[in-house]
Amino acid sequence: MKRFILFALALFFYLPINSQSEIYEFRVYDMELFRSADILHDYLQKALIPALNRQGVVNVGVFEESGEALPPKIYVLISYKTMQAHQEVFDALALDDQFKKDSEFYNTIEPKEIPYNRYESIFIRSVSGFPNLVKPADDLDFFELRIYESYNEDALRRKVKMFNDSEFDIFKDVGLNTVFFGANISGHQMPCLTYLLAFKNKEEHSQIWSKFGAHPEWQRIIKLKEYDNAMNDITRVFLKPLPYSQL
Which domain holds residue 111? Predict the structure, then answer.
């Protein structure tokens, strides 16, 4: 059943199957402007993340936007070996007495006290050129989230191929530190890919991207007809990790 799900997803996205691929759940919480976020932070830090860790899910990332973006958002990144593993973990949480105890306050608060309006749960599958999440060094705490939208599935396939064949090597050459990379399975910007980069600060971010733009391999591949119209929109969000983030 697990292999069938991966095969079906690969057909849908015209992307090659990789046995090392991971699944990422990326949650985006739309926070209320005039309510304290402490309830959500306590739930994530003291209930959900410890429970996920007990199930072998490690390096859970929690971020907020850098700057004064309104309305505020909280981002949570959770990695799984497979989609089936995601289902098994959350089935296990339902039977975890410690998790039930730790999340009791969160589960019983009044609706008017919940600090967010809703959250979107986006699922992403890693690609062959970057199959596994990499925890960044401790001094890299300035993050850039990038979402590349394509106008159809084949355009997305070509953009992913561009990364697999060339761009990941350019990233290494110029010093771009990738945390995760994948093609989205679900979300409101489909079809698209999503990735996260880590830097020391905004200055390093600007310096490294300047090197990328001038790299001879980048200058070569952007002229290839194969990659024409592979991407038609970019979303960039700068993030900073919360104190209890494991990334």
Answer: 21-126
